[in-house]
Design brief:
This protein is mostly helical. The protein is 62% helix and 10% strand. The chain contains six helices and three strands, in the order H-H-E-H-H-E-E-H-H. It has a three-stranded antiparallel β-sheet with strand order 1-3-2. Strand 2 and strand 3 form a beta hairpin. Helix 3 packs across helix 4 and helix 5 crosses helix 6. It starts with a helix and ends with a helix.
Length: 144
């Protein structure tokens, strides 16, 4: 359900959230997450305008689409809307990582697992030890 509403297409060649969102969607989500309160389209627009040339209506359209995808919650305040994230950045990335890995594991389990172990080992031997510990703990609990 989460995956379908977002209309996510995984783009491995992109960076950060642009791997699963459009570049402007990702940039807007980052701005919204940086605030500890609901934000208006105007506030997001002003921040974006410092970095790029962009129309207010473009920001408004993208934020409305993010609300339709249920990534932003939209509440009316007088004659304008305030937007807040439905998921924290951590919750969103955890969901996306789970969905991507579940999809890969369903069809390509052996290559995915081999690559993960090699990648972890190449980057940090301590992380490989942590992975081994997690596996031992999971087995001790009965697998699930």
């Amino acid at each position: 359900m989460f995956w379908r509403k977002l209309g996510i297409e995984f783009k491995p060649h992109k960076t950060g959230l642009s791997k699963v969102l459009g570049e402007l969607e990702a940039e807007i989500m980052e701005i919204v997450w940086q605030h500890d309160r609901p934000v208006s389209v105007r506030e997001v627009y002003e921040e974006l305008r410092e970095r790029r040339s962009i129309a207010y209506t473009t920001v408004m359209t993208i934020m409305s689409r993010l609300a339709e995808k249920e990534l932003l919650q939209k509440t009316q305040e007088s004659n304008y809307y305030l937007y807040s994230p439905v998921y924290s950045r951590e919750e969103f990335t955890t969901k996306v990582v789970s969905l991507v890995l579940d999809g890969l594991l369903a069809d390509f389990a052996q290559p995915v697992l081999s690559h993960l172990v090699e990648k972890i080992q190449d980057e940090d031997e301590e992380k490989l030890a942590q992975l081994e510990q997690l596996i031992r703990e999971r087995r001790a609990k009965g697998g699930k």
